């Protein structure tokens, strides 16, 4: 039976220029491969070594990109290796099968959200009414499932983020601060639920996972083994669990290390 590898993308396997974390001398910096172009400009990268490792992983496991990105944002990415049969977008809101959203899964997600948490409209109104235009640059709704703000981090009051997290918690939502974005996501909308569905469909008997943010915690806990890089919300809070390995690498080199760990774990299993 196959090994399933479910990995977050941004700041886990792929990195914007601002997140690369190239602290070594220029002459020692790794060669980079651009894997995403947006508005005719390069946007996201991985090292060439990571690209080779991801290609190898495609022959050793069922690789499932698992992201909070919308479907449109995900489709901009061109990962090396064989095309992924399954991909998870919108934090589990959409399960793509050969690039097409599975309507049955989408209906199941919609039913859970209607039953188990406050509405998107209520959360969006709260964000619009409490976020200060002084530090908010954009208000966004993703796939009619969750909301996020693009902010100026240096101006963002940390107390506001804490108050928002408490307000959201009482309504069945989770708040996550990632770079310049503040996400408000319904608790029933999880990557782990979608990954379990893929594991059921593929018959996988071993699930491996990686991620860096609070929204990845449920994904890591649902896997048999998981890894988190040395940066991100989980690292900053010291979050860990018995089946989770906390890696020291930060930035784009963490992506290399995560793929090395995936391959080591997947090959003996096969």
TrEMBL record:
Name this polypeptide is given: HAD family hydrolase
Annotated keywords: Hydrolase
Statement: the UniProt record of this protein carries the keyword Hydrolase: yes
Top-rank taxon: Bacteria
GO molecular function: hydrolase activity
């Amino acid at each position: 039976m196959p090994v399933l590898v479910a990995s977050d993308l941004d700041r886990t396997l792929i990195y914007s220029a601002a997140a690369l974390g190239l602290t070594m001398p220029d002459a020692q910096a790794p060669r980079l491969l651009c894997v995403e172009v947006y508005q005719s400009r390069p946007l996201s990268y991985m090292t060439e070594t990571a690209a080779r490792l991801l290609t190898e992983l495609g022959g050793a496991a069922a690789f499932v990109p698992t992201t909070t990105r919308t479907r449109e944002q995900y489709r901009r990415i061109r990962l090396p290796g064989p095309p992924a049969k399954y991909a998870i977008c919108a934090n589990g809101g959409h399960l793509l099968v050969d690039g097409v959203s599975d309507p049955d899964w989408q209906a199941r997600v919609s039913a859970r959200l209607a039953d188990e948490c406050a509405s998107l409209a209520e959360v969006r109104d709260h964000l619009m009414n409490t976020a200060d235009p002084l530090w908010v640059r954009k208000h966004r709704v993703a796939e009619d499932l969750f909301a996020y703000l693009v902010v100026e981090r240096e101006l963002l009051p940390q107390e506001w983020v804490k108050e928002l997290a408490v307000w959201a918690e009482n309504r069945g939502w989770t708040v996550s601060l990632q770079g310049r974005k503040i996400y408000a996501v319904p608790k029933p909308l999880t990557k782990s639920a979608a990954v379990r569905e893929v594991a059921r469909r593929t018959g996988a008997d071993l699930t491996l996972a990686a991620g860096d943010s609070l929204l990845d915690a449920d994904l890591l806990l649902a896997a048999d083994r998981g890894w988190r890089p040395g940066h991100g919300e989980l690292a900053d809070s010291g979050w860990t669990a018995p089946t989770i390995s906390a890696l020291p690498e930060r930035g784009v080199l963490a992506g290399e290390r995560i793929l090395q760990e995936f391959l080591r774990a997947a090959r003996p299993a096969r």
